[in-house]
Amino acid sequence: ILDEGSPNVCPSTAILDDAGELIRFSSAMPSGPGDVAFRARMKQISGLCEVDEAAIDMELNTAMEAFRGPSNADGEAKFTYFVAIRDKDKKVMTSIKCPMIAQFKQRETELSFSEALTVTIPRKTGDLPKDYIVYLGFEMTPAELAYNRKKKRNR
Questions:
Q1: Closest by Cα among 8, 48, 11 to 128
Q2: What is the pLDDT of residues 72-128, one digit of tens each?
Q3: Per-residue pLDDT tens for 2-61?
Q4: Closest alpha carbon to 19 in 155, 153, 146
Q5: How many C-beta neighbours within 10 Å does residue 131 have?
Q6: Dihedrals φ, ψ of 152, to 5°?
Q7: Are 129 and 7 a contacting pair, CB within 8 Å?
Q8: 66-75, 90-99, 143-152: segment of lowest average pLDDT
Q9: Looking at per-residue confidence, does 106 or 62 come out higher?
Q10: Phi/psi at 130 (nearest 5 deg)?
């Protein structure tokens, strides 16, 4: 059994509900499914930690998938995902942006891949790893976020 101060205990991780899937259209005014350039989705996060008095070094591994849409002629899915770290006072301590390009081969329509990233979380005196939460999500435009929320409401 691990206690809360054990080096093997990591902060909680979560994929943000509204930002865990990104549907990017090829035009600003999409008229239907034929305008989808790509869809990307975060599937799972795992992490390993090293903890000392000053910091938590957390190695995140995020499983993702991308689907090529009908309007994607160049075979690329360009997107940015972010990692945000929240403390026990519910304040975002830091946010990291990670730009990516998923490259589809000629006839490929689906990719599965994982992305590794190490983050360092400075510890406040007396805080334990469980006092922090690491959130992940895709950076998106207000229109893309609204589309995700509308799609979720209609499920």
A1: 11
A2: 989 999 999 999 999 999 999 999 999 999 999 988 999 999 999 999 999 988 899
A3: 444 454 589 999 999 999 999 999 877 777 788 999 999 999 999 899 998 899 999 999
A4: 146
A5: 18
A6: -65, -40
A7: no
A8: 143-152
A9: 62
A10: -65, -10
CA pair distance 15, 13, nearest whole angstrom: 7
Strands (E), the chain: 12-15, 21-25, 36-51, 55-68, 76-86, 92-103, 110-122, 133-138
Are 136 and 117 a contacting pair, CB within 8 Å?
no
Rounded to an integer, what is the distance from CA 89 to the centroid of its chain? 22
What single-letter amino acid sits at 35? D
* Size (the chain), residues: 155
pLDDT number for residue 66: 97
d(CA 40, CA 138): 9
Which one, of 36, 47, 116, lies nearest residue 77 by Cα? 36
Whole-number Å distance between alpha carbons of 30 and 13:
33
Structure tokens given for 137: 């999500």
Residue 145 contacts residue 82 (beta carbons within 8 Å): no
Place of tokens 């008095």: 53
